[in-house]
Amino acid sequence: STKTELPAPYGPWMEIAHDLPQLIASHQLRSQVHQMPQLSARHLQGRKELHLAHLVLSFITMGYLWQEGEEGTVKVLPQNLAVPFWEVSQALGLPPILSHADFVLANWRRKNPNGNLDTIISLPGGESLRGFILITLLVEKAAVPGIKAIIQAIHAILQLDEETLHKALQELAEAIGDMSKALKRMHDYVDPAVFYAVIRIFLSGWKDNPAMPDGLIYEGVSDKPMAYSGGSAAQSTVLHAFDELLGIRHSEESTAFLHRMRDYMPLPHRAFVEEIHRAPSLKQHVLSSGDARLCAAFNQCISALADFRSYHITIVTKYITVAAAKAKARWAEPGDRAGPSAGKPPSVLEAKGTGGSHIFSFLKSVRDTTREGMISA
């Protein structure tokens, strides 16, 4: 499981991290960060402590930058936050920004012995934020048998073991189907209005983002501003691994974006995806086998993956496009401006994913090229 506590000297970080929603709501986070002692990352030991530190510092950073919304950004991340965040990032091979690995993979704990999940660190968004993180985690968990099936499939190709390969492909298709089932629970736990108006901005980065056109200066690290993309499920290793195994070729533009997202994965994840890329081609093997059962099992994987991507588009439509229209409509109504959307609805990010991609053209292109990966009889 994940680590939930850092060693005692890092108390000042943990105190701020555990109080982020409150500090942001009361507009006090920036002044709290300015009073934080300068701590060195050198006393952190082992990957688990480093991942927890990266999670804690990335959440504090996102809160610090977006505390005043997209109109009230800053150009500099103060040294007492920037330097240790940079050190931890270098040690892990992760960029100094909130990534999928922080937000989801490192950010869960068991609330009690019977396995109920909770997050470790939070941002504004209450139960909807908790739901968003944990449902995404459950999608990753549903993928686990599929990741294991990839390894079995590659071994089976190398050993020319068609029986094992067929079974591995069936397990992969089933895992992808279970990911879609897990994703469907998003509707029960995440309120679109809260996701759109509250949560989304805190996942935004400072690359290709008009709200922070110059990027961010990490004080004490470099005088030059640096630009990093916001957190995005395009950083999840799982779909990259499936695409590599199934030999799916996305458009040039989509591929460029997805490959850039690999720089936001933990190093062992990136190595895993590259390892699959170097393995013998599954598709070629299935084609040259002329085995109808293998072809059918391969196509089931493709079909399940395209269905998952279609369903994700449905979710994005509800949580971004429809939510945006509703926020605008509420803003246009005279009178009642005291609700949660009392500020202007977020405009800059409207048609963009949090990772900075033009969301619908990207998602539809990726879904369509997935379907095109079918083997025709």
What does this structure look like?
By secondary structure, the chain is mostly helical. It has 16 helices and 4 strands. The protein has a two-stranded parallel ribbon with strand order 1-4. A two-stranded antiparallel sheet has the order 2-3. A hairpin with a 6-residue loop joins strand 2 (108-110) and strand 3. It is globular, with a radius of gyration of 22 Å.
Number of helices: 16
Strand content: under 5%
Relative helix content: 55-70%
- Order of SSEs: HHHHEHHEEHHHHEHHHHHH
Derived from helix and strand composition plus strand pairing, the structural class reads mainly alpha
What distance lies between the first and last C-alpha atoms, to the nearest angstrom? 45 Å
Major beta sheet summary:
2 strands, parallel
Query: What is the 3D shape?
Result: globular
Rg calc:
22 Å
Give the beta-strand count.
4
Low-pLDDT stretches are 338-342
Summed over residues and divided by their number, the pLDDT gives a mean of: 93
Strand order within the widest beta sheet: 1-4
List keywords for this structure.
377 residues; mainly alpha; two-stranded parallel sheet; two-stranded antiparallel ribbon; 16 helices; 3% strand; globular
Map the helices and strands.
Elements: H1 11-17, H2 20-25, H3 29-34, H4 46-66, E1 76-77, H5 79-92, H6 100-105, E2 108-110, E3 117-119, H7 126-158, H8 162-184, H9 186-189, H10 192-199, E4 217-218, H11 237-246, H12 252-261, H13 267-278, H14 282-289, H15 292-332, H16 359-371
Parallel strand pairs: 1-4
Antiparallel strand pairs: 2-3
